[in-house]
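Tokenise the fold.
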Amino acid sequence: MAYVQVEADDRLEEGPEGLQFKCTHSVFLGADGSATQPRSAGVGNADRGYIQEESQRKGTGGFWTVEYYQSYFDVDTKTVLKRCYTTLNPIAARTYLSTSLNPADLYGPFWTLTTLIFALFLSSSLAASVSAYLSTSDAEYDYDFQLLSIAVSLVYAYGIGLPVLLWLALRYLGVGEWSVVEALAIWGYGQFVWIPVSFLCVIPIKIVRWVLVGIAFGLSGWFLSANVYPILASVRYALLLILLVALHLGLAITFKVMFFSYYVVDGIGPDIPDLPGEGSGNSTFAFL
């Protein structure tokens, strides 16, 4: 509280008629008695940080700085898990972008792809070692760490490189309603179904693994198509959609051949013909 000393004025004795008030400039006194300018009006919820617009989510630096991407990694684990589980629901696929993925993040897609890499390597190595032990108990199994580098290249190329290339192609065609963050989020969360399938494919029954791969291909393919088709329909480029389906099918077959091709003969359940190079049905153990 600041006190200002006012000198006596003869006009005060004349009553209210003698007083004249002039408002030249509004000044407030601070706690130390110094004059401070008033705050400007119009400070709303957005200024206080209660409302986060898309422009406010971006950092103050350029896109080459860490601050620019920091807001896209500011998401809690509960939200990430909910977004992962929702991708398994075909009914919610059409509205996923507007409901579950609002706003989009990069934290969940990155860890989904990274977890998938280790899931592919660990599950395939575990199943191959168990199959080798059941086939010939005295044989030693050497882990193939080259599979890990293959998984890294394959998963990151499909989950990061492909959506970025698709976004650039859409920008070239004049479609600007889809951001690169949304494209990365859709592709990253869309690969979540392969994580449980990777561990379920430890089952040494070839027909069961083919069914699991088909289910994962169908769920992830439908999820991607439901979110990408409305964007591609605006430019009427059906060729892009056909190309994306072909790439997704190639990914599923590559997963099956590279990571899920192991079995123990003398068999458990019915068998199906082998793919070229996958091994003969008379072999005791096969792994690629």
Notes: The radius of gyration is 31 Å. The longest helix spans residues 206-235. Confidence is low (pLDDT under 50) at residues 21-59, 277-288. The beta strands are 28-29, 35-36, 262-264, 285-287.
